[in-house]
Amino acid sequence: MQFYDRIRLELDELRTLGRYRVLPDISARNGKDIVVNGQNLLNLSSNDYLGLGDDKPMLAGYIQEFNATDHAMTSSSSRLLTGNHPLYGQLEQALATLYGREAALVFNSGYHANIGMLPALSGRHDLVLSDRLNHASIIDGMKIAEAPYQRYRHRDYGHLEELLVEAADRYRQIFIVTESVFSMDGDLADLAQLVALKEKYGAFLIVDEAHGVGVFGEHGLGLCETAGMVQKIDIITGTFGKALASTGAYAVMNSLVREYLLNTMRSIIFTTALPPVILGWSLLTLARQSAMHHERQELLRLASSLRHELLERGLDVPGDSHIVPVITGGNNLAVALAARLREAGFLCMPVRPPTVPEKSARIRISLRSNLQWDDIARIPELIGG
Ligand SMILES: Cc1ncc(COP(=O)(O)O)c(C=O)c1O
Prior knowledge:
Layout: H1 3-16, E1 26-30, E2 33-36, E3 39-43, H2 56-67, H3 86-99, E4 103-107, H4 110-121, E5 127-131, H5 136-144, E6 149-152, H6 157-167, E7 174-179, H7 191-201, E8 204-208, H8 223-226, E9 235-239, E10 249-253, H9 255-264, H10 266-269, H11 276-290, H12 293-312, E11 323-329, H13 331-343, E12 346-347, E13 350-351, E14 361-366, H14 373-376, H15 379-384
Parallel strand pairs: 3-12, 5-6, 5-7, 7-8, 8-9
Antiparallel strand pairs: 1-2, 2-3, 4-10, 9-10, 11-14, 13-14
């Protein structure tokens, strides 16, 4: 079959399976709302968990300051060549200080961080153990890495320990990798238990806090702060593109690991550095979010009220965070539910396989601290009747 015929057929198949993706036509964002395909909707699909992306005074102040400096719109080369603007050093120092860790490293995105880290740190004599529901970027990192990998059942640390026992003495180094707040289920890793296992078996623990940063912990460092594990996790990664309302990602670690990554991590060596305008903005939002503890508490309270109302209606609503999924099972059901919510003025995107496991399609309600109960009060009835 000709190439073009084959990919046309594959696209038809995706349509039949209810997995076909299209880019939404987004013409405006108005505070809590977003205009999609001409319709004004309450945006419940954004990762701007603290509403910082909509903080117009902060943005206006930054643009004014930006006009008065030489912050360029490009870094024009890799950090290892001429792209290492002084703002990188300031941002990494701010991160290390905030976490009380030796060192930090900034990446172009969470995707870059996750596809680069495991391939850099591990080799064919090592083993990676990964939570079954880890994000696609972590899975891609494992596929690129030379080390073999195994997936333990989601948050099943008994299963993880079985794999650790089986693997003991057979590998040079074992890596455990997990998200802290799982992006599609909104449930939480037990970081204390993971640290205990890592210590018992001499493993190296990597925790992706993409959805925990800004939302958990007194200073917004994530679930590692709530769990009192900031010092004990080998590498904690976070993204700037979600609660921190910017672009890029970071990891905190010890100085030796930082030095090693700078020398071996292809997704930092072979890519153009972030533009200074973004680094300066990230410095600002990082400092701002660390003082937003009240907003974090309000957000988690709102999420718990919504979850309670949905569970009362007998719906399948896993998790324990600001990400509130409602599992429908079938793809078409999720799409129909999202359409019903959209008609009523709410944007909650359906999430389908392969993003989530087969038969676990869902809508994912993503809450933000600048929403009030009145904004979402109609949702439980719209979903559960
Ligand atoms: C758990 C997790 N890690 C990493 C990423 C990727 O981060 P970025 O959007 O900065 O590439 C995401 C994005 O959705 C994520 O959910």
